[in-house]
Specification:
- The protein has about 250 residues and is α/β, with parallel strands linked by helices.
- It folds into 2 domains: about 170 residues, no CATH class; about 55 residues.
- It is built from 9 helices and 6 strands.
- The strands form 2 sheets. The protein has a 4-stranded parallel β-sheet, sandwiched between helices. The chain has a two-stranded antiparallel sheet with strand order 2-5.
- Helix 2 crosses helix 6.
- The relative contact order is 0.10.
Length: about 250
Amino acid sequence: MSVKYWCSPFPIESSLSEALHDAGIARQPWKSIDAIKQSELTILFDPPDLVLSRRADKKTTTNPNDLDLVDLSILYGEILTHANNGSVILIAAWQLHAISQSLSLQEILSHNPGTSSSLNQTSIDYPATNILSSLSAHYLNSQQNGKLFRLYCQVEEIAIRFGRDIDRSYNSRLEKNLDHHAIARTLREAFNNQQRESVLVNGLHQTQQEYRDYVLESNDILKQYQELLHESQCIASKYRDELAKSDAKVNPT
């Protein structure tokens, strides 16, 4: 396998993106995928909750797009379409990132990861989930009658998994986070954080208004000063003219 390019319809961890760049594997825009030779391309994906979590935290993402959350199933569907139409390789971004902590990306992607036993990981920890992203993923999935999770599992089935099983327990993994007390606590914390952010934003707006008022007041003072200076110059000029006339009378030539 000779991977030269990667792309993803989802936000990807910035450190993985940087490592791929350093390894000489160029990122391609998702919309330009058809122009790339499929055998030289790998598509990276993540579970729905991780996509939502990364989308909410733009500071840890690379080139995040304005992702409409209801389009998640469409994007997983597009991944399946590209995979079924060619020889493109699918890899879970979170797993590639985990393996790259002990092996270089050149080593990983220079093998055929589907057959290389040296890369197999029969035991691996899935990415940690959080309550808000788990709740959001479950809500989107229920709104689509389970379509979102089905598409994710179909992508998992044809992806290179480096020896791990298909993520069939994805739904149950998320449900572990959906304890009613934990949800209530998290939502309350999120609300309090939002309230604090609102106070900070309001304070910032007030500071900006005070600064604008100060600038306007300063401009008024400067204008008054310039008018006073102009008036003083006129008076001084008039005084010089009168003084010159007086001297002329006293000392006629």
